[in-house]
Amino acid sequence: MRPFAGAVCAIARQEFVRVLTYPLIPVVAFIVFLIALLDGAGYASGLEGVGISNGPDVLIFGFTRSWESTAMICSIVAVFLGATSILYERWNSSLNVLLTKPLYRRDYYMGKFLGLSGFMLLFNAFTILLVGLMMVVFYMEPQSGSEFALRVSSYIFITTLSCSLVLALSMFFGVLSKNILLVTSLSVIYTFFDWIWHPERIMGGLSEFTPQQLYFRLIGPKGITDPAALFNTLVPFDRWLNAAVPLLIFVLLEMLALLLIGMCLFSREDSV
User: Fold this and answer.
1) Range 167-189 burial, b when 16+ CB lie within 10 A, else e
2) Would the N or C end of the chain have less CB density within 10 A of its end CB?
3) pLDDT confidence of 90, banded at 50, 70, 90?
4) How far apart are CA 222 and CA 1, in angstroms?
5) CA 83 and chain centroid, separation
6) Alpha-carbon gap, residue 25 to 185, rounded angstroms
7) Chain centroid to CA 193
8) 182 near 91, Cβ under 8 Å?
9) How many Cα atoms occupy the beta-carbon half-sphere of 123 within 13 Å?
């Protein structure tokens, strides 16, 4: 178990650093900054003259303007990273010469996933906190710092969990085929299907298991009428959490299943 954990951690660390130094990362970060700047300024402009009254915390509720677009940006990054992480090295046949034996494919696969998930956690935190910072700069501070920290931390966790599910799905498709166009297309279609069409008309019950549908239901779980309950401070946090926990467990199990299936398929050759 210890050699396995050590190998996985080493690969995860290497993958995290590799992605962090991608030439496109500063470009993406700058685009995210511009979006956050415009969103914060636009939200503040729309709220001029609005009082605090007895309503929800206006600043926290402001995330309802941007959480869908934020989810799309973060998911696009996750799809790209997941679809290309395994596929590129399989495509140019460099996998067998990059690694030092004895190192199993399961170590490599799991390490890649953990490294990419760690990067997505950093990227999501940067994106979401930047949006919140812009709203603070252009409008006002939150009514309660602890409430803001609690709900924003949960928001970051949910977004990262959703992106990790997208990573597991994209890496699974990458194991099935070496065709990067096919893998990317499958990942994009399944991840963003419900952004464009009505998935229930075509996919039936399977539409409930798309990453975006699960993400939407985590933000506003069934049993709570507010579709953005996480950002509405009139909905007690513990009520939202109790409603979201079963779905959180389901998302974790779905991600684990995809990860294990992909790992088994990738490990058909026992060692590299």
Assistant:
1) bbbbbbbbbeeeeeeebbebbbe
2) N
3) low
4) 40
5) 14
6) 22
7) 16
8) no
9) 33
Mutual orientation of helices 145-176 and 180-196 as an angle, nearest 10°?
140
pLDDT the model gives residue 97:
44
Distance CA 198, CA 193 (A): 8
**How many alpha carbons fall within 13 Å on the CB side of residue 250?**
15
- Of 137, 107, 106, 124, whose CA–CA distance to 38 is shortest? 137
Output the CA–CA distances (angstroms, integers) from residue 187 to 27, 92, 157, 174, 183, in the order listed: 23, 21, 22, 9, 6
What pLDDT, on the 0 to 100 scale, is given for residue 138? Answer: 78
Query: Which stretch of DSSP H or E encloses residue 93?
Result: none
- Give the Cα separation of 38 and 36 in Å (integer): 6
The pLDDT confidence band at residue 67, using thresholds 50, 70 and 90, is: confident
Look at 54-63, 150-159, 196-205 and tell me which has the smallest mean pLDDT: 196-205
Q: Could you give the CA distance from residue 219 to residue 158 in angstroms, rounded to a whole number?
A: 8
The 10s digit of each residue's pLDDT in 188-210 is 877 776 666 665 656 666 667 77
**Residue for token pair 């997505």:** 120
The label of the residue with tokens 């299943």 reads 257
**CA atoms of 36 and 14, how far apart (whole Å):** 30
Cα gap 110→105, rounded to integer Å: 8
* Residue from 150, 85, 141 nearest 114 by CA: 85
